[in-house]
Design brief:
This protein has a domain of 60 residues: Orthogonal Bundle (Multidrug-efflux Transporter Regulator, Chain: A, Domain 2). Helix content is 59%, strand content 3%. A two-stranded antiparallel ribbon has the order 1-2. The chain is elongated and about 70 Å long. The model has no long low-confidence stretch (mean pLDDT 87).
């Protein structure tokens, strides 16, 4: 081990909190590189690098399960980069599906907002009625809301 870091120092260097580090350990994404006689865990530079990898992958939207697969590919010798590319493509496809869903939500909210004149009481509010599901499909036009 290049450097012996306490859990707090490793977490700090990686930009995560200690509870996150413990959680990654429980999920099998990280292992301490050593222990003191007292039982305290020790981590090294590779642990910090691995923590940063996990954090960066999460920032790209990868789930912890997907990250575990990427980590296995990362350390595998002779593993074809195409496997990593396929995982990244699958993540991109998921992101695109989410964007389409968010765009549909955006259009629905825009339509609901256009239907509301914001001058009436909430008992006849087309936005609340639409969210409640009790209302008929909302038509465009201003309602007394």
């Amino acid at each position: 081990m290049n450097s012996a870091l306490t859990i707090g120092k490793a977490a700090q260097l990686a930009g995560v909190n200690i509870q996150t580090l413990h959680y990654y350990e429980r999920r099998g994404l990280l292992r301490p590189e050593g222990r003191l006689e007292s039982g305290y865990r020790l981590y090294g530079d590779e642990s910090v690098r691995r923590l940063r990898f996990i954090k960066n992958a999460q920032g790209l939207g990868f789930s912890l399960e997907e990250i575990a697969r990427l980590l296995r590919l990362r350390v595998g010798r002779g593993v074809n980069c195409g496997k990593v590319r396929r995982q990244a493509q699958a993540r991109l496809d998921g992101v695109r599906r989410k964007i389409m869903g968010l765009k549909a939500i955006e259009k629905t909210l825009q339509r609901l907002i256009r239907t509301c004149a914001a001058k009436g009481t909430t008992d006849a509010c087309p936005i609340l009625e639409a969210v409640d599901g009790a209302a008929r499909p909302v038509k465009t036009g201003n309602h007394r809301c």
